[in-house]
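Hello Y.,

Per our agreement to keep a running log of every chain we model this quarter, I'm adding this entry. I've kept the format consistent with earlier entries: sequence first, then predicted structure.
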Amino acid sequence: MAKEKENTNNKTFLLRVDAETMEAVEKWAADEFRSVNGQLQWIINEALKKSGRKKK
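Predicted structure for the entry above:
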């Protein structure tokens, strides 16, 4: 069985959010068929692009 390569470009960090915010993100992620992690990555990437801090 082939062993999957671990993506070393991703970094792990702890994020604390209030329950109401977490519920909203969970619902948004479900509505768009994403995981919560995927939704947060998308939100961050979009904000970085919009602010001009990340190339499109």
